Amino acid sequence: MEEYIGGLWDKLITRVAYQGYPDARVELAQMKNIAATFFRALGGDPGLNLQSGSATTHGARRSWLERIAGIGEKAELTWADETTLHLPAFIDYFPERELNRELYLWLLALVAHDVDPEASYLQRNQAATLALLSAFPSLQERYHRLVEASLLRRPDPSELKKQEAENELLLRQALLQPGSVHTELKKVGRKEFNFVPVPLWLNTPPKNAINNTKPASKLTPEQAQGSAVQSDTEQRKRMAERTDMPDNPSPFMLLFRAESLFSWAEYVKVNRPLDEDDNPDAQRAANDFDVMSVANDGKSTASRVRFDLDLPAEADDDLLLADGILYPEWHYKKQQLQEKHARIQMLLARDAKAIALPEHLRATAKRLRQQFQSLTPERQRLRAQLSGDDIDIDACVRFSAERRGANSGHAVASPGLYLDNRQQSRDMACLLLADLSMSTDTWVNNQARVIDVIRDSLYLLCEALSATRDRFALYGFSSVRRDNVRFHLLKGFDEKYSDQIRGRLAEIKPGFYTRMGAAIRHASAILQQQKNARRLLLILTDGKPNDLDQYEGRYGIEDTRVAIHAARQLGLIPFCVTIDEKAEEYLLHLFGAKGYIVVKDAAELPQLLPRLYAQLTQA
Questions:
Q1: Where would I find the beta strands (DSSP E) of 19-74?
Q2: How many Cβ atoms from other residues are within 10 Å of residue 300's Cβ?
Q3: Is 283 exposed, middle or buried (CB count within 10 Å of its CB: 0-12, 13-18, 19+)?
Q4: DSSP string, 99-163
């Protein structure tokens, strides 16, 4: 009965006391176009996701102080973790819409200057405020407007109990004079602080956001890990029943989208250990992942099912052209390059047979060849040259007329009187790097998979470029951890496009993962060796960088970004073509505003890719 009455009282207080201003509400979605840009412009971490946050609670039930102050059940506060900045989905705290909008911008700027995130609530936010105002003094006026408006919404200390009033006075002083409060807030009772959170400040993550996961079965994480006396086989089986899946994808940046790993109709969700795990058995668990036991009755079984991610036997695999080509990899947490960290394996299709161009592409290929012939360098006839192969009659007539009509005593400079025939210059080399990971095995429509669309695109691009004198090469890549980055030779710069090359393209197949940073570094090394004036690195993919080990999420994104930056420093022109519908949310961070294009309809890629190449290579 007491809980029932308490619940009714909660609802009554929330309805009566919540003092938001719906007419002045500003939603996060309305700030989408400027939020990310503003955050990064003020020095914010460019790899941090921006996302709608969750309400921060102090205990199971919100205090009446929060409700009276206008921070009710529906209100959200701002907090950040290692990868994500959680902002309120809307702000209606102030009666003026402009103030609510300024509060969004202030919070973005404050996170960018969160100099001591491990400090207490009071000290952390004072330090961040001082750092921000010191870096951008022009924000002083905006800050004081927000503070004045915020103080009007806070509870009157004279109406509070002693300890609550003391906390409120400390908060007010910290707002008015950041850095002047060196004491800490006081607890009311044994367990909980009792104070109204400051909407202008950063808060600690909610307890339910620290482990924001959902178990795939009825087993708890503790049960899934098993007791110390359980056998190794039983532990591995239980670990296979766990999963860690993120909720509420970011409206600004795409969360990790796992590659397809299925080799049968039903799939097993797996909690994958990382290379940097504190668990001493993490490496063994990662190695054992390739072969897993599966049992439906909860008992051990002798049968084992091999995943598609397993490497094929040597006799069935592609020919190994080179092994042990080592490249560094960027560790974003340590902010340093790990030397000789990723290993490239150069591969060539073992049984590729020479074939003709597929019938369904021939009409399109013929049209593209005709169009791309206009890009072929031609001899150009230049007039009025100082030297040349022939006399420019028109220039001679004009010069003679000008000399006769000139006043006496004024010499007429001798112009160019010759015609010269010169070859136009189009000094271009292009390396296309295609993503061949398992995600390309998904279906675009009822007729074709992503890998089929990629193959047709490569066919047509080769047909188009063969009509020009541009030098080009094709490679594909996938990976299984850092020591096995598979780099497939489809066409080298020194090879002529032929039926044999078409046979290699016919043999490409999806598999494994997307360690994009290592692949870009090796492609850059190959392209750098070309002596052409312009060198284009064209990357064709359908998703984010990822792999079995720690190369997921932020780690893979940051390593790929560093690899792209290194390619630009070599004088190359990296450009990404993707069919990932949400790629714009992370490709801007990787390639910049003009360094990528998103193809909304994957089926159109074969026709769009040659046209895109023509636009990118126009002088």
A1: 26-27, 49-52
A2: 12
A3: middle
A4: HHHHHHHHHHHHHHT---TTS-HHHHHHHHHHHHHHH-GGGHHHHHHHHHHHHHHSPPGGGS-HH
From CA 588, how far away is CA 598, in angstroms rounded?
11
- β-bridge partners, 486: 345, 478
Token pair for 17: 């006391």
3-state SS record for 484-516: CEEEEEEECCCCCCCHHHHHHHHCCCCCCEECH
Average pLDDT over residues 215-233: 38
Cβ atoms of 340 and 328 within 8 Å: the answer is yes
Question: Cα(512)–Cα(286) distance, rounded to whole angstroms?
Answer: 15
Give just the sign of the alpha carbon dihedral 588, 593, 595, 596.
Answer: positive
Q: How far is C-alpha 475 from the chain's CA centre?
A: 22
CA end-to-end span of the chain:
79
Residues 116-137 have pLDDT tens digits of: 888 988 999 999 999 999 999 9
CA distance 397 to 394: 5
Tokens of 5: 């009455």
CA distances from 583 to 284, 361, 587, 588 (A): 34, 28, 6, 8
Q: What is the pLDDT of residues 319-331, one digit of tens each?
A: 999 988 999 999 9
Residue showing tokens 């940046």: 253
Distance between CA atoms of 113 and 134, rounded to whole angstroms?
A: 10
d(CA 129, CA 137): 11
Q: Is 412 helix (H, G, I), strand (E, B) or coil?
A: coil
CB 432 within 8 A of CB 472: yes
Place of tokens 């230049």: 382
CB 442 within 8 A of CB 451: no
φ, ψ dihedrals at 195, nearest 5°: -155, 160
Question: 406 is written with which tokens?
Answer: 């000139």
DSSP symbol at 82: S
- Residue 184 has a pLDDT of 87
**Mean pLDDT in residue range 27-33:** 82
Asked if 583 and 596 touch (Cβ cutoff 8 Å), the reply is yes
Hey, which bits of 355-437 come out as E strands? 379-385, 390-391, 418-423, 428-435
Is the whole-model pTM more than 0.70?
A: no
Closest by alpha carbon to 378, among 429, 427, 426, 418? 426
Round the CA-based radius of gyration of the chain to a whole number and report it.
32
- In the prediction, which pLDDT does 80 show? 76
Strands (E), 436-501: 471-479, 485-491
Tokens of 470: 């541009």
Residues making up the chain, counted from first to last: 619
Distances (CA, A) of 612 to 32, 414, 449, 582, 606: 28, 45, 22, 20, 10
